[in-house]
Fold:
Amino acid sequence: MGWDSSRPVPWRRLVRDWLIYVAVMTVFLVLVYRDRVTVGLFAGLLVSGPIFVLIGAVLAKFGYQRKTMKQLRAEADARAAAKAAEQGVTRAAPRARPAPTRRTAGGGNRPANRKKR
Structure:
């Protein structure tokens, strides 16, 4: 797909995703760099915001739309249903049990007075 200036850009979603990223990374960086936390770490996180949103906006103009969790679950359910339907039609009958033998305790070769383990 090519660039289309009429395609909508999900600004709220992009900003929300970036804020979630900043929150997670802030916690991570504070835990990892406990005593060595500097302003540069947080400045890097703040600079990443406009870059993230700008790249997301350009991708949206080219037609990229990230799928939601609801869409991904629906696709997974559809695949599972199709697979189950396919297996139900082509599934062979279960194999019959083999005849009991002396080794499988079906032979009845044990003396009556002997206790089972």
